Structure formats: structure tokens, C-alpha cells
Amino acid sequence: GEGKLLRRLIQTDQLTSIILYGPPGSGKTSLAKVVAETTGSYFESVNAVTSGVKELREVIGRAEDRLGFSGQKTILFIDEIHRFNKAQQDALLPYVEKGTVVLIGATTENPYYEVNGALISRSTMFRLNPLDSEHIIQIIRRAISDEISGLGALNIQADDDTLNTLVHMTSGDARRALNAIELASLTTQPNENGEIVLTMDVLKECFQDRGFTYDKSGDSHYDVISAFIKSMRGSDPDATLHYLARMITGGEDPIFIARRIVICASEDVGNADPQALILATSALKAVETIGMPEGRIPLAQAAVYIACAPKSNAAYLGIDEALEDIKQGRFSPVPIYLRDGTALSMEKKRTGNFETEVYKYPHSYEGHFTPQTYLPKDLEGKRYYEPTHLGYEQTISAYLSKTSRANND
Length: 409
What we know:
Layout: H1 5-11, E1 18-21, H2 28-38, E2 42-47, H3 53-70, E3 74-79, H4 86-98, E4 101-107, H5 111-114, H6 117-121, E5 124-127, H7 133-145, E6 156-157, H8 160-170, H9 174-186, E7 196-197, H10 200-206, H11 219-233, H12 237-249, H13 254-269, H14 275-290, H15 296-308, H16 314-327, H17 341-351, H18 393-402, H19 404-408
Parallel strand pairs: 1-4, 1-5, 2-3, 3-4, 6-7
């Protein structure tokens, strides 16, 4: 953007090492080419997929010679930098630190997970988002009309509905849009007026496989599973099924999906609907037994059930608060009357106190309940579990109001 940091660095030729990260077709390599054409530095480019330490050292050697003989800086563009292993990234680090090369790294993965921390600390991060529909339309129209760099000489005709269909199919990836336009244009015969008319059917044929992007070990994995869980928690069954379908299509481990459903059933539904956990664990067992693709059915059933169930995280909050109390040392000895029978007998002999309160067996009393304090003395009256008034927790709340909670209050 006009006046923004990256543009100012390029225009003033003061670029420091940067890492560009974003989804495919969002412009990372294009930005690197902009730098190559506008900077006074020498531009070297390597691809992390096909290059190793040997090639990297050759590039750095040339950069050292260039800097020593003419004072010219070298910009080193590394595409798919996350593909470099730790040894390769370590080999690059001292030369970035000394300024032998100015690094431009491009990656589709979150660099904070995939790139050496020392390289990150010496670089500025720029995140590229998927392109908006209006931007892709603009790129397509340029490609169609540009006679020098594009396809303008072919006299291509395409109406707005057709282009909008193309944009919808590209999912923010400009490269895929350009590839589809080129493929459709080169395989379509001109009409009697010499025009190449691109129709929806032609473009859809060029997209027989939309090339769904889902990296099971990368950002797609974390982003989609996060959206899936939040959709269940947010009681949206349609979004839940959408993200479930994305994971299944992307080849995500169905057991991993099932485990996340089980966690959500307990963490977010809890006792508002105890049946949710039963159904979720049954779905996990079913997927383990029958596998895929049939496993998609119990996964969908359990996920939709949880999305539509009343929600409560009371038990989840309760155990976390109890654990925090233990970590902070907020506990005292178990009351004598709650201890094991042998321990209680030994304690009575040790202290000589045979009049201590005895354990009252609830089933021996009317309603199978009798008031007695169960928490340690210094935590009497403490509330860890606060049931909501949703779903089955209404029943739990009513029961507690007549029993232990009523006694303690």
C-alpha cells in the first residue's frame, strides 16, 4: 500500500531481511520480483525444495565476492523456505546476520512454527492474505487485455457471470485463476468473428479438480480444526459439517477428528447433555472399527449432535479451579471420618479421640442423603462446580439445592 513499510523499504532500497507468508497465489513470489526490478541490489533466487547446502554456499560465495569487489548488496530470495531443514537454515544464519545477503523468504506455513527462531528474530514478518474477489477479477481482466504480458492478442471474451464463477472456484488463489484462463483460452477455438468466448462450462472443465489445499501438518490443519471446534461450541451445525468436510477431503486422520469431538463433548457440552460424551466416544470407537469412508457418517452424527446440544463448561472450569488450588498449596488433610477404615482406627488410637465425627453412609438415610462435610476444613463451602440452568444441568442444580449445597449454605 501507498506509504506502508514494505513499499517504503523497496522504494528507498533499504530493504532488510523479510519473510513473506501466506496461502498459495497470494503474491509472495510476485513481491520478490518487484524487489528484483526496483532495487539496486543483485537478485539471487533459490527454491528450498530443490536446493541444498551446497547451492546455498555457492550463492553466498558469489554474494561475498560481489560485496567485496563492488560493494553491491545481494538479495537472496528463498521460495518455500520452510522446506529447508534445521542444518540448512543454520548454514544461512551467519550470512544474514553479517549482512552478506538480504533474505527474502517465502512460505505458505506459519514461520513461527517452521523457520529457525534466530532467522525470524533478524527478519520482518509480512503476512499475505488470500486475495479478495475484486482483486482476482482485476488480475484476470489485466491478463485478458494485456497484449504484451498477457493474452490480449487472443481476443478473449468472457462475461461478468463467467468471471465471477472463475473467481469463486479459485478460493483466493490468483495463480490458479491465471492458469485456468490460459488453459481455457488456448484450448478454445475462435468463433467466426475471431473471438475466443470463454463460457462457464469451459472454465469448470479446466477445474475438474479444484486442487483443494489442506496441509495436515501445517496452518490448514490448525486453522480448520480450530474453526471446527468453535463451530460446534457456537451451536452451528452447518459450519460444523463444512469444516468436517474440509478435513475429510484433505485426508485428515479421522481418529484425530473423533478425539477432538470427544473433547468438545466434555469441555463444551458437559453435563448440560451427558449423552453427548457417550455419543462422541461411540463415534470414536465406530471410526476405529469401520474406518473411512464410512467413518464420515458417525463423525458427522456426533459433531452435529454436539453442535445442537445445550452448552456448559461448568465441569471443565471446576476441575481447572480445583487443580489450581492444589498447585497453590490450598489444601489440608482429609477429614478423619472420610479416611480409609484402617487409617481412621489408627488415628483414634494415636490421639485417643474416640468421639470424632463418624462417616455417615448416605444409603442408610431417607432419600439416600444425609448432611455431612466432605471438603477439607480450610475449603469448607468452596464452590468448584457451578451448574448452569441449561439442559440436564437444570436437574443437577435442583438436586444440589436440596442436598449438599443446601446443607453448606
